[in-house]
Design brief:
The complex is a heterodimer. By secondary structure, chain A is mainly β. In chain A, 0% of the residues lie in helices and 60% in strands. Chain A has strands at residues 4-7, 10-14, 19-25, 29-37, 43-49, 52-56, 59-64, 69-74, 83-91, 99-100, 104-109. In chain A, strands 2, 4, 5, 9, 10 and 11 form a six-stranded mixed sheet that branches. A five-stranded antiparallel sheet of chain A has the order 1-3-8-7-6, with no helix packed on it. Chain A is globular and about 45 Å long. Chain B is an all-beta fold. In chain B, strands 2, 4, 5, 6, 9, 10 and 11 form a seven-stranded mixed sheet that branches. Chain B starts with a strand and ends with a strand. Classes of the chains: A mainly beta, B mainly beta. Chains A and B meet through strand 4, strand 5, strand 9 and strand 10 of A and strand 4, strand 5, strand 9 and strand 10 of B.
C-alpha cells in the first residue's frame, strides 16, 4: 500500500461544478503539499498545509491531521483547471524530502 | 529570477551512453532534489542535497550520481543509460529560510533510452 493515496485517479467535470480531490496518508507528517501539473508538464506548488484550511482564489485545501486526510476543492471549475493534481507529504524528520501520491487527472469540459 | 532551470528539455540516448542532466537555481535555496516521473507512479526521489558539498540517496538512486559543488547547481549524471531510465526528470529546490520547504520545480527533462 502506498504511503500517500489519492482519489479519484481520474475525474471529469462540467464547467462550473464543485470539485473535490482527496488525499490520505499513513505516516506521520510535518506538512502536506498540493501541486498542480499542467498539460505541458510543468509542476507548481498550490498549497502547503500543516493544519486547518487555506484558500487561494477558487482553490481551497483542508487537512485533518488526526484522520490523516486532506482535500483539495475547486469551486466554479473552469476548463483551464484541467491538470494533474498531486498530493505530497513531508514525513516527520525527513527534512525537505517529499513522498508523492500518484496524482489525480482532472478534466473540466466546457 | 529565473527560478529553477533544467537542460536539456528532451534527450534520446542509446543504451550504455552516459550524460548529465543540468539543474540550476538562482534563489539561494539550500535544498535541491532530483525526481523521476513514470506513468502510473508518483514522483520518486532519486538524490537530494541539503547544501553545497552534501548529497544523499533517495528512493531510486541506482544508476545515477550527483554532486553539489555550488549552492546553485545540482547536476544528475547517468553513468550507463538503460531503457529503464526512460522517464521525465524533475529538479526541485526549496528553503526553510524564506518559507518552510515550498518546492519550486524545474520544467523537466524528457529522456528516452533506446
Amino acid at each position: 500500500k502506498n504511503e500517500v493515496e489519492q482519489s479519484p485517479q481520474n475525474l471529469t467535470a462540467q464547467e462550473g461544478e464543485f470539485i473535490t480531490i482527496n488525499c490520505s496518508y499513513s505516516v506521520g507528517i510535518s506538512a502536506l503539499h498540493w501541486l498542480q501539473q499542467h498539460p505541458g508538464g510543468g509542476i507548481v506548488s498550490l498549497f502547503m498545509l500543516s493544519s486547518g484550511k487555506k484558500k487561494h482564489g477558487r482553490l481551497i485545501a483542508t487537512i485533518n491531521i488526526q484522520e490523516k486526510h486532506s482535500s483539495l476543492h475547486i469551486t466554479a471549475s473552469h476548463p483551464r483547471d484541467s491538470a494533474v493534481y498531486i498530493c505530497a507529504v513531508r514525513r516527520t524528520a525527513s527534512g525537505s524530502r517529499l513522498t508523492f501520491g500518484e496524482g489525480t487527472q482532472l478534466t473540466v469540459n466546457p | 529570477n529565473a527560478g529553477v532551470t533544467q537542460t536539456p528539455k528532451f534527450q534520446v540516448l542509446k543504451t550504455g551512453q552516459s550524460m548529465t542532466l543540468q539543474c540550476a537555481q538562482d534563489m539561494n535555496h539550500e535544498y535541491m532534489s532530483w525526481y523521476r516521473q513514470d506513468p502510473g507512479m508518483g514522483l520518486r526521489l532519486i538524490h537530494y542535497s541539503v547544501g553545497a558539498g552534501i548529497t544523499d540517496q533517495g528512493e531510486v538512486p541506482n544508476g545515477y550520481n550527483v554532486s553539489r559543488s555550488t549552492t546553485e547547481d545540482f547536476p544528475l549524471r547517468l553513468l550507463s543509460a538503460a531503457p529503464s531510465q526512460t522517464s521525465v526528470y524533475f529538479c526541485a529546490s526549496s528553503s526553510d529560510r524564506t518559507g518552510p520547504y515550498e518546492q519550486y520545480f524545474g520544467p523537466g527533462t524528457r529522456l528516452t533510452v533506446t
